[in-house]
Amino acid sequence: MTSLSKQPQDVPKHAISVDSHVERLSLRSESLRPAPIELDALVSSQRQAGQTIYNFGLPEHVGFPSCPGIEPQEETTSNDEVDRNEKDKAEKNRAEKNSADSQTGVAQSRTLSSAHHHPTGTLALKRSILRWSEADTSYHPENVVVGSGANQSILHALLAICDPGDSVIVPPIPRESYLELVKMSGCRPMLAVSTGEAQSGRIRRESLLRQFASCERIRAVLLCNPCNPTGEVYTANELREILDICADYGVYVLLDRRLWRTIPTEVRKDIALDSKAHLPWLIHIDSISGDFESSVGLRVGWTISPSDVAERIANLQKHGGSGAATPSQMMAIEMMNAADSAAEDMRADFLLKRALWEKHSRDIPHVTIYPTSAGVYSYWDISEAIGMKTAEGRILGTADDVSEYLLESFSVISTPGSAFLGEDLSSETSIPPSLRFSFGTEKEAIIDGLARVRRAFELLEP
Fold first, then answer.
1. At what angle do helices 326-361 and 123-132 cross, to 10 degrees?
2. Residue 147: phi, psi to the nearest 5?
3. CA distance linking residue 65 with residue 334, whole number of Å
4. Who is most buried in 161, 269, 339, 365, counting CB within 10 A?
5. Is residue 188 within 8 Å of 165, Cβ to Cβ?
6. φ, ψ for residue 335 (rounded to 5)?
7. Class of the domain covering 19-30+118-340
8. More confident residue, 195 or 68
9. Which CATH code fits 51-60+343-458?
10. pLDDT of 173-206, one tens digit each?
């Protein structure tokens, strides 16, 4: 294992055993699987009873994305037509096989090649990803590895750069999947908890330096910008400081960029991620479903990383996992191409929904609402509501109780803070009881759903 002291070389070289990581993938699933959420049956029964459920727990995705150039096929062929088509196809195949024309073999090879599955992504998709990510001046297609969603990409990146027992720093209020992904890679998650200041979802320079001084086996820092669940955005200075520190200590930065296009343009342009000192230690993470509404079923995510890391991720994915389906890759290209011309519309839609959310959530009692700078999430500190009673006399002792109260009595879905930390790290942080809501839904649902949330908190009694 390479020492975490300052590295004189520009590009890291590690002897990582991919086989050992692949072997471990199937050994940890039972012990690391999170407890099941018991909301599905309740939501189903309420919907059967005719109640409207407002899903503020996750962005509301309706239907499949409409992509130019890719149209759904209607199945209108009769059985007789199928038989005739099969006979015609067989005759054509026999004719091609018996043909003396050498070009037939070439054409067949090309057909097979174009139909072959690309486990790390097609060249066309990799080029589209670099353009979409505004990274085409610093990286080449070989730096891109396409997987089945951002979480798979994060896991494969961790497996490629870490050894079992290494530590990975995560934000003080981490995205809900981060802790489990770090554990699945055989590593130990460390919360970058700040002291003596207001709690934030961002990793602070001081907390980072404090943890580097106290632990010798930190291998990576995993963070997201914009922050999920808090909706905060790192400034260019903050990101630069983190990258500087990590480059000095020889520690990778996994930058989860999902929903990055909702960051204000002037802020985004100021965030330069092309420094030669940073590139050997920077791994970009993103996905289609993380950036586009109505595409949650399109499992296409990717990493953009240094060449040696990309090679290890690609080897791991080829032998121990699966890439994105070829039709999904084709659709992703069309979506990114269309989004290039619609980027301002996407940003305008975000601003409109955020303004609507802020207007209708203003002055709700017993809550403190974090400002959302980017993303589609609203993070609420509900400390004041803890210990209060509902109209039915039930005492709300935890954020989970409040979330359940909103669902059972007002048909609104939220995500309690316990989903982000889990029980094993609850003692290491001072994060207050909280809820996360999403306003990635229809405008009418935002207005009516927030009216229900307001009524729910107004009815609480000491």
1. 20
2. -130, -170
3. 11
4. 161
5. yes
6. -65, -45
7. alpha beta
8. 195
9. 3.90.1150.10
10. 899 899 999 999 999 999 987 665 556 889 999 9
